[in-house]
Fold this protein.
Amino acid sequence: MRKTILTLSLLTLIAALFWIAVFTLPEKNLRIIACNVGQGDAFLITKRNTQILIDGGPGNKVANCLSKNIPFWDRKIELVVLTHPEEDHYHGLLEVFNNFKVLYFLSNEAESGNQSFGVLKNLIEKENVKLISTQRTKKLKIGLIYLDILWPLEEYPQKGNNNNSVVLLLKYADFEGLFTGDIGPDAIEDLLKAHRLPNLEYIKIPHHGSKNGLTESLLDATNPQIAVISAGRNPWGHPHKEVLDMLSARNIRTFVTKEEGDVVIATNGFTLEKVN
């Protein structure tokens, strides 16, 4: 009798885990989640069992975002991107590399003297993550997702971490989204000279909505439908009124993480919607 009870309990547990897995299967649409990590950046892109993480934010808040948007049984992230080595972009990646198997790591190879950045580099080396340099790679394909690495240019002079942020153009069917790190006006003008950008469905506004980030010329060149600003409580007043007015004047749907929480946009490659 005891053996029968144990067998039934085991079968019940297996059935429960099966149905939990079924109900947590990723949907077929591509999703872009601007994680609410406070004053920093962390953007998770998912397509079924494929995940791309752009930056990790400050602290460990990114872990909550990943747990909500990646099935519990999927402990692999195909690509992690660090746009530039500022703590509000990289610190949360310590938690990511400690808890997930990361296949590829993309960065501009810039350095930081912060001790925590050294810990991150050691962790990446220890886990034998494959490294991708923006200086040698300009295009990536991950499943049905295409990434064009637009910035920094190999010959671009070092003008501080922000202006050397990795800038990515994501393409999925007819959907195109731009991820801009903390790039500033000078670099934006040079980027626009180097690349003819398409009309966008989605743009991540540079530098947390600082007036030292977004420019009229970038909006003129890309005509985005949706803009997302990742910002938390901060002493600088991000996002600045000048940036919000710029977006409002063009009737661009704008979402700010410190007001909305996680901002989730889903697309089938042709239409898009805000999920939450």
